[in-house]
Amino acid sequence: MKVNDVMTKDVRTCGPDSDLSAVARMMSMRDCGVIPVVDNGEVVGVITDRDICIAAGSKNREPSMIIVSEVMTRRVYSCPPDAEIQEALQIMREKQVRRLPVIDAKGRLCGILSLNDVAITARDAAKPEELSADDVEKTLEAICRHQPEAKQQAAV
After folding, report:
1. Using an 8 Å Cβ cutoff, are 131 and 137 in contact?
2. pLDDT digits over 35-94, tens only?
3. Alpha carbon separation from 143 to 5, 25, 97, 127, 156 (Å, rounded)
4. How far is residue 121's CA from residue 16's CA, in Å, rounded to a whole number?
5. Of 18, 26, 37, 135, whose CB has the highest number of CB atoms within 10 Å?
6. E runs forming strands in 5-114
7. Whole-model pTM?
């Protein structure tokens, strides 16, 4: 099973100069928790609902006065649309991310793969050997695993 078979294809994006209020409205209207940040056609980051909440609570400014580039996640883990779904799940487990932008060989955003997309597909899979509930469970467990050594390093 390929990522292209599972991913969400209709993805909204924002620019690095978008403000957090506009992005939050977009997330609300689309019922999603992540928006890829695109600059000159290239994915330069992602912004999540968590990023927005933390910024709104810690920056002491109105969300409409905070721009995406101040708080977005710049390190983007992604996969190509023709990757096997198991490859994408491995990236999610290793990098502890719930969502992967799907980027083609030309660097264009094709969609986004979320753990929710994978779970729904696994539930409805005609061939459970390609994607199972166990695959989803193992991925979620890895994503949620606490990394005590990372917290200690961050505190230093």
Report:
1. no
2. 999 999 899 999 999 999 999 999 989 999 999 999 999 999 999 999 999 999 999 999
3. 22, 27, 6, 25, 24
4. 32
5. 37
6. 34-39, 42-48, 99-103, 109-114
7. 0.84
